[in-house]
Hints:
Elements: H1 3-11, H2 23-36, H3 40-50, H4 52-58, H5 63-92, H6 97-112, H7 116-137
Helix pairs in contact: 2-5, 2-7, 3-5, 5-6, 6-7
Amino acid sequence: MDFVMMFLMWAIMMVGMMVTTSPTVGAGILIAAGLYQWTPSKNACLEHCRAPASFISKHWRAGSAGALRMGMHHGLYCLGCCWALMLLLFFGGVMNLLWIAAITLFVLLEKVLPAGAQGGRWTGRAMVVAGVALLFLT
């Protein structure tokens, strides 16, 4: 096991399956992810990710280097859209395939459904409530 993994396991109290064992850390992850669903930066990044054709037409660059630059630029918007949801993997388990599938389905629905952003905000509320409940019930 390398030093970085050992530090992570110590710092955020994880077990070998890469899931937090601390209810406080788990609650913090839920609350942070839920609150991020309401931020203007989340909404701005989601709008860019929802319309890749518009992004391509506005930011077109010719050649392989241009394609790489556009891909990295668009990838940053997608990362900005989903980084907090990716943190949920440490709550439910990075190695838990059902948890991964559930988050993937949520991200997909948030991006493709017309009311996806609104559904994301409702889910954000639920994550905050679950995080607060976890804090008080443990």
